[in-house]
Amino acid sequence: MIKVLSISRLGRILVTLLFLALASIIVAQAADYPAKCRVTAAKLNVRRGPGTGYSTINTLRRGETVQVEYVTTNGSARWGCVNYPYGLQGYVSMRYVSYVAPVQPVQEPSASASSAYSDGSSWFSGLSDSVGDFFSGIWSVVRIILIILLVLVVIAFWENILGILVFMGFCAGIGALLFGFLFGNSGLGAMVGLGFAALIGLRQVLEALHGEYANILWVIYWLVSLPVYLLNRLQYFLSEPWRFMFKTSWVPDSVKTWLRPVLEVLKIVLYIATTPLRVVNAIIYNIFIYSLTSIYTLFFEVLRPTADGEGARDFWTWLYMFPVRLVKYPIYHGGISLLEGFIWTVVDTFIPTITLYHGTDLQAAEAIVRSTNRNTYLRNTSSRTCGTFTASQSSWGGIGVYFAARRAVAMSYATDPNRLSDSNPMMLVCRVTVGRIINYALAPHHVYSQAGQYGRHAELNRYGESNGYTTGEWWNQRGGYWEYCLFDWQNKYNHPWRIRPIYAFNLRTNRAQPIKGGMQHWLFEQEILDDLSRILE
After folding, report:
1. Which phi and psi (to 5°) does residue 406 adopt?
2. Does residue 180 surpass a pLDDT of 60?
3. What are phi and psi of 245, to 5 degrees?
4. Average pLDDT of span 366-374
5. Longest distance between any two alpha carbons in the chain, whole Å
6. Read out DSSP for 491-532?
7. In this structure, are 82 and 218 located in the same domain?
8. CA distances in angstroms from 80 to 64, 182, 529, listed in the order given
9. Counted domains in the chain
10. Helix (H, G, I), strand (E, B) or coil at 486
11. What is the pTM of this model?
């Protein structure tokens, strides 16, 4: 009995000693921080606070070493604090790190130990700390100044700020309700609503700048479009590198007889050789630019509808028709525009097509690019033919639709007071299927002589169409630029399947012009499909 009691007492003593040893280790480790610790998990999240409810700011991998400054508890879990540059802190779960060794505190160098700075790295480290402290102090001052300015702005414009907050809350609420009802995601709807509110607010702020706003948009337009414009100019140049040699009819007709077929063969060779460039331009214009500008103008119809039945004059109609407009315009018609862009990219690979420019006014531009089916407003207020170009009957290069290869030429046409019917000069950027081109300088001399102010322009059309040409090209000596006339004296072939407007640029406001009801589709419109069927028959 005594032996049993002795063994039992001995066991209790051993357990007590083991417990004290473990406790001493834990206390020693708790006291030995900061310390180096090694990550044992395959992936360890660094969070903003000591708990899984905090967001992740970084991720560590197995085997990485991190310095833990101290350990805190959250419930039963232990979290180690780790430091990041610029005073940032994060927390890692101590369950997934192993203790390596304590970090010895850095001893401050004494005044007499100047030799410590004889090492270049130590001197640079001290200098970096000093510079960091200097800029940290400056940032503290700047932060105080910014807070003061923010308070002054809030005091001065509290009514405007309150209105903006109410508007943003309204948009976020509407978005949350719609997306929650349709898709079960109210959070995403609130973010979309806030995005709409921010875009509308930004537009109103820029419009308040008037002239400055126009100048800003003008510079942005030119900077963004310049690389694309240069690629198109390169394709234009490579299509006929000899173009500059034939501005006038200086070659005898006897030479032109065999020169024309030779140049036609060279055109085919260059056309095949420039296929990669043509495909790139087709993708840029047909898919990216056309789709973006189509959705841009369709979103205006969502926000500011022109049809009474969709909320043009009544707020409550505007409100409950908002989901309908959202699906109808940017989603449905925007999707069709994207599909058409892909289709015409394939077509442009095989049929000669290039981006050209047409100068006109706002009334004519809207009539050209608008959709008859979706635009009752313009259909009722304009007497022009809808959704198509109208051939010019009195121009110098033939009867048809005129385009320029340079934007400056189209702008000069648009800003000519003799051609404008309103105060909004417009430039239409179009993808044009030009087909076979005849340079009038390479036509017989009696045909070339009909180009110009006093010529019989119908002779140009008659020669072109009888010889299988679809477009006339000539150097306007009076203006000093190349012009292109798409032969169409009967207005049969000027529909969007041949001339496809990408966007209309308003030269007064210096921005893309929103078209009420959206632009005419390039392909999926009934009148266009009927027109193509007649041609194929």
Report:
1. -115, 145
2. yes
3. -80, -15
4. 71
5. 138
6. S-S-STTTEEEEEEEETTTTEEPPPTT-BPPSS-SHHHHHHH
7. no
8. 15, 44, 70
9. 3
10. strand
11. 0.59
